[in-house]
Amino acid sequence: MFTLKECGSPLRWNLFSHWVNKAYLADYHSIITILGIDETSTKKGHNYMTLGVDMDSRRVVFATPGKDVGAIEKLKSHLEEKGTKKEAIEQVSIDMSVTFISGVGNCFPNADITFDRFHTVKVINQAMDSVRKLERQEFAMLKGHKYTFLKHDKNLSDKQKEGKYGLLTLYPVIANAYRLKEMFNELWTFNTIEEAGGFLSYRVDLLEESKIQPFIKAAKNIKAHWSGIVNYAKSKLTNGILEGINSRIQLVKREREDTEILTTLSI
Predict the structure, then answer these.
(1) 3-state SS string over the chain?
(2) Cys-Cys crosslink for 71: which of 43, 50, 58, 244, Cβ 3.0 to 4.6 Å?
(3) Letter string b/e over residues 36-66, b meaning 16 or more CB atoms within 10 A of that residue's CB
(4) Do 122 and 231 have their domain in common?
(5) How far is the C-alpha of 70 from the C-alpha of 54, rounded, in Å?
(6) Per-residue pLDDT at 122
(7) Are residues 60 and 90 in the same domain?
(8) pLDDT digits (tens, 9 = 90+) for 121-171
(9) How far apart (Å, rounded) are the C-alpha atoms in residues 95 and 153?
């Protein structure tokens, strides 16, 4: 067992790194066909690493500093060293990062991309909040209501729901924007790309016809990422697994930062 003093020194982390590295070098996984790729911060500021996760076994198979095309190329090289050829990857779940899209296209030519549904929802929610901010400049009552229009009713108290629908009655532009946001909720219920595509096509037309600039911008963004959005209907992939792993990494990161603080204080 480590003493408090040892926990506050590099000893613990040196041992930890030694055994992780040993396991990493010895690891040989079965052929991977479904891959999740995500970024996570490693330090305060703009310091990131890219994670590659086997979505079937739900485990990290590779991690490397950076979040650029080079990180995807390193992931591909690692997988091939461990027995998974680039052609074996059939599905990849990523966010809408341009570098991730480019990297996956270059490194995994047979893979269909699925954009994590969180990021599609984020596009619509950002449009909703942009409308609220614009309306708030004229109507002070809308201040402090960012999450009022972004949260589902089930996550609001009765008082909050009453307040939300009161505001929707008072402000028609906000009401129209909220209607546009809510009509995308069904997108995730379809089981074929054709059904999802038909649904999305009609909804994007409504965004463009709304003449509400933030939603017109959202429509353009959705069109640019069309295939990866509708592909969810077939793959049902989400980055929920990666988000869980990311949370654990952040816990370890905070523990490491606390250890460094203890070390500094003990000097």
Answers:
(1) CCCHHHHCCHHHHHHHHHHHHHHHHHCCCCCCCEEEEEEEEEECCCEEEEEEEECCCCEEEEEEECCCHHHHHHHHHHHHHCCCCHHHCCEEEECCCHHHHHHHHHHCCCCEEEECHHHHHHHHHHHHHHHHHHHHCCCHHHCCCCCCCCCCHHHCCHHHHHHHHHHHHHCHHHHHHHHHHHCCHHHHHCCCHHHHHHHHHHHHHHHHHCCCHHHHHHHHHHHHCHHHHHCHHHHCCCCHHHHHHHHHHHHHHHHHHHHHHHHHHHC
(2) 50
(3) bbbbbebeeeeeebbbbbbbeeeebbbbbeb
(4) yes
(5) 19
(6) 94
(7) yes
(8) 999 999 999 999 999 999 999 988 889 999 988 889 999 999 999 999 999
(9) 26
CATH code for the domain in which residue 24 is found: 3.30.420.10
Same domain, 224 and 245: no
- Domain tally for the chain? 2
Structure confidence at residue 211 (pLDDT):
92
Residue 230's domain comprises 117-235
Residues 24, 110: one domain?
A: yes
Distance (Å, whole) CA 166 – CA 160: 10
Yes or no: say if 218 and 127 are a contact pair by the CB < 8 Å rule.
yes
Same domain, 214 and 248: no
